[in-house]
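Good morning N.,

You mentioned wanting to compare the apo and holo forms, so I went ahead and generated the holo version with uridine-5'-diphosphate. This is what I fed in:
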Amino acid sequence: MSAPVLVTGGAGYVGASAVRALAAAGRRVVVLDDLSTGTRAHLRWGTFVEGDAGDPALVGRVCREHGVGAVLHFAAKTSVEASVGDPDGYFRANVVTTSHLVRAARDAGVRAIVFSSSAAVYGTPRALPIPEDHPLEPESPYGATKAEAERVLAEGGVPAACLRYFNAAGAEPDAGLCERHDPETHLIPRALDAAARGSTLRVFGGDWPTADGTCVRDYVHVADLATAHLAALAHLERGGRGGAWNLGTGRGASVREVVGAVERATGRPVRVEVVPRRRGDPVALVADPRRAERDLGWRATARSTLDAIVADAFTGWRTVAAETAAAGGGPRP
Ligand code: UDP
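and this is what came out, ligand included:
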């Protein structure tokens, strides 16, 4: 029987999907989450401990009590936009926490860490698609904290797989798992909001040097990200070396293409207003995902096509909207 896995941030968006995948694979799971941004309704599998992933005494105690052999570290602040206004908060949450966590886990005998990193570590790419050995030149405090946390992990004394997500998207509505950020800053849920409520989606920049003038991203389904974590864990547990792997599809979609997919999924038009560029946004991020396929045996599935992502995201969006209405809340921002 494989050792239990500690999942920090397991009540969050990607973390909860990974917990589901671990449980489905028969792994025992302990979720550590302070519920500052996580969702209690996502706590459906394993043992839950409420607390801070950056509290070394707590992490050490939980690892020893449960015989934890590996950690999946999701707990983090995740908004490029918010990081620009709060770089210190992002440094504490994403770098200092990771540093405390890795030392406590190492001292408690943990032998593998899988870390949620981000394509934001690259900054504006010199060419597309982006391979993992592209220079790390982050343009936002968020991206800088992920790059720094990768460095901390590389020196932490525990084999670590840093998974550089491109744009996590979609949902697993059959398990009640979907994106529930508050405030919501991400494109797909905002575009769904605009379609369903008839509000206006602000598009950050229409004069980028891309085919239609809007930014390009590589959207990857959250369920595919979850299976990548299992693949990275298996790699480390069979003695594979740590390192960094891109998680993306290798295909880019512009903001306008996403809007088109949202219109198809919802059957409604999205009213768009082009506003100035958002600080910290690189023009285009598209993964070269071949290293993950070669080393981890992972590649994105058909769930990561844009229409499939948006269809699942819309089902998830309706779940959240219905819950919000039932709780007497108004529309989300
Ligand atoms: N975006 C936009 N309007 C919004 C939110 C996002 O035009 O209300 C754009 C943003 O500039 C970026 C893309 O959509 O080019 C994806 O942004 P998101 O915040 O979803 O993810 P990020 O790439 O920042 O991680």
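The radius of gyration is 19 Å.

Happy to go through it together on a call whenever suits you.

Best,
F.
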